[in-house]
From TrEMBL:
The organism's place on the tree of life at top rank: Bacteria
Parts of the chain that traverse the membrane: 28-52, 64-84, 96-114, 120-142, 154-176, 182-204, 216-235, 247-264, 284-305, 325-344, 351-370, 376-397, 487-510
The keyword Membrane is assigned to this record: yes
Region named Disordered: 527-547
Subcellular localization(s) per the UniProt record: Cell membrane
CDD domains attached to this UniProt entry: MFS_MMR_MDR_like
Residue ranges constituting the Major facilitator superfamily (MFS) profile domain according to the UniProt record: 30-516
Protein name as annotated: MFS transporter
InterPro entries to which the protein is assigned, alphabetical: MFS, MFS_dom, MFS_trans_sf
Membrane topology (UniProt): Multi-pass membrane protein
Length: 547
């Protein structure tokens, strides 16, 4: 919003003059805008979950197509975060962010009007591209605007609480829309939100860039994207086919792993790498990244299965399902809001470990769920699950950003967001595969049901209900009962696998620092100010640099 006078000199915008007058205190307003951006992305990651049964009934996707409808968004987003994160370092993070808003809105319209599974998958992939353009900027700008670790911890606490608000709003809002309109309306909600944030972001957000030394490694960015997609695609197909020697699963998995290894080697050799791999030699950084992956793996995979349980086993409406999930997300909001205080008192190691243990305990408690509704048990389990996971995510994010040098914050933000989205996608793939593997055997050999109908019922619980209704009579009743029982059994197996992973995360978190060291952050902030002060110059705030 800056103007230009007759001599071609840019005049400061009102926002830039306000920033200069307030001594940079508008970093909190910048944080507010970044949090709205996060709501946009977090909302879309969860709002579709309660609409899955309606999508299944309307579009009749296969089991693989249904998985892709849900996780095409997080997987495509994860694969492109490094590409767009580093591109934003070169051409401007705000510029990429605003382009992401536009693409997100257009893709939402396509998804809402999709009339088959293929179009919906493609639209979800476009949403993933838009999300990949949006997400790296939020953390990198946050790290830049808040150099002091104590303030940054508070900002990250607010940031993670807002993410929980987006997650909380998604199921409830999605349930309301599906119940009163149609499943496509869950995507239309993105459009007014984007229409609000796009002009606000253009006027309020500071433009920022990272180091532009050397050429941008386009080949490396494409290798990383293809490597992530190939690896997760292979895992998805292994889970769906349940054959370790299946060529369609092994080929993308091996190609993806090879590309990731080549990407790492390429980055280590380059003078100006996309990602400074030396960060992973720091135990605190690498451990934080691994904890983010594990926490998101548990959260998203369990949430998707929980939604199916609430709707298809307990027969709750989409709106009732969203309301049942509110305790989980409100507990997550509380954990984010109090995270800064807790981190300062107990330190990263204890906070992450206890978060994992609390989550594992909640998961084990939820194994008491059966075919009958137990509201109190579900509420207690979801509260413990939300608080434990958000505690882990907050402390892991804060440790990761604080461990990364200021000069490589863009790469660190891309790694953090890639871990977040990759963990979400792999949670759906891995836990969904465990669920399918435990669910399918119970549908074989049901009296009066043909092999073909049994195979169809084994694809999903929703499809089993449809086949049972079509069969009718004793055979239909037997298939219906067997499908419900098998789903609950698969849910219990999946919860036990999740608990094992969470306990492993608690042990892994012991590598994190015992205390929250704020001295290094203060020295870093001083170093950022010293060069300008040494020249007798006033160092501009990030917002002033936007001009």
């Amino acid at each position: 919003m800056s103007g230009t006078n007759a001599a071609g000199v840019r005049t400061p915008s009102p926002w830039q003059r306000l920033s200069a007058a307030s001594g940079g205190t508008n970093r909190w307003v910048v944080l507010a805008v970044l949090c709205v951006s996060l709501v946009l992305v977090a909302l879309d990651a969860t709002i579709l979950h309660v609409a899955v049964p309606s999508v299944t009934e309307d579009l009749r996707p296969g089991s693989i197509e249904l998985l892709w409808i849900v996780d095409a968004y997080p997987l495509v987003c994860a694969s492109l975060l490094i590409l767009f994160g580093t591109l934003g370092d070169r051409v401007g993070r705000r510029r990429i962010l605003l382009l992401g808003y536009g693409l997100f809105g257009a893709a939402s319209a396509i998804a809402a009007l999709a009339d088959n599974a293929q179009v919906l998958i493609a639209a979800r992939a476009l949403l993933g591209i838009g999300g990949a353009m949006i997400m790296p900027a939020t953390l990198s700008i946050l790290r830049q605007v808040f150099p002091d670790r104590r303030e940054r911890a508070l900002a990250i606490g607010i940031w993670t609480a807002v993410a929980a608000i987006g997650a909380a709003s998604g199921p409830v809002l999605g349930g309301f829309l599906v119940q009163h309109f149609w499943w496509g309306s869950v995507f239309l909600i993105n459009i007014p939100l984007m229409a609000l944030i796009l002009p606000l972001g253009r006027w309020l957000l500071p433009e920022s860039r990272g180091s532009a030394d050397g050429p941008w490694d386009v080949l490396g960015a494409l290798m990383a994207a293809a490597g992530v997609l190939g690896t997760v695609l292979g895992i998805k197909r292994l889970g769906a086919e349940r054959r370790l020697l299946d060529a369609e699963a092994l080929l993308p998995l091996l190609v993806g792993l090879v590309l990731l290894v080549l990407f790492v080697r390429r980055q280590r050799r380059r003078e100006q790498p996309l990602i400074d791999m030396r960060m992973f030699s720091r135990a605190a950084f690498s451990t934080s990244v691994a904890c983010i992956v594990l926490a998101m793996l548990a959260l998203v995979g369990l949430e998707l299965i929980a939604v199916q349980y609430l709707q298809l086993v307990l027969h709750l409406s989409p709106l009732e399902t969203g309301l049942r999930l509110l305790p989980l997300t409100f507990a997550a909001m509380a954990a984010g809001a109090t995270g800064s205080y807790t981190l300062g008192r107990v330190g990263p190691r204890t906070m992450v470990s206890l978060g994992f243990v609390l989550t594992a305990f909640a998961v084990l408690l939820l194994t008491l769920m059966g075919q009958q509704d137990r509201p109190l048990l579900l509420t207690i389990g979801f509260i413990l699950l939300g608080f434990g996971l958000q505690t882990t995510l907050f402390a892991a994010y804060e440790s990761m950003l604080s461990e990364a040098p200021a000069a490589t914050v863009g790469g660190a933000a891309s790694i953090g967001e890639t871990s977040y989205q990759l963990g979400a996608g792999m949670g759906i793939a891995l836990l969904g595969s465990v669920m399918n593997a435990a669910y399918r055997p119970g549908l074989m050999g049901v009296p009066g049901v043909s092999a073909a109908d049994s195979a169809g019922a084994a694809n999903s619980l929703g499809e089993a209900y449809q086949i049972a209704a079509h069969l009718g009579g004793p055979a239909g009743a037997s298939l219906y009962a067997a499908a419900r029982q098998s789903f609950v059994h698969g849910l219990h197996v999946t919860l036990l696998v999740s608990a094992v992973l969470l306990f492993a995360g608690a042990v892994m978190a012991l590598k994190l620092p015992r205390t929250m060291d704020c001295g290094a952050a203060e020295e870093e902030a001083a170093e950022v100010r010293l060069p300008a002060q040494a020249k007798g110059e006033a160092r501009p705030t990030p917002v002033e640099q936007a001009g």
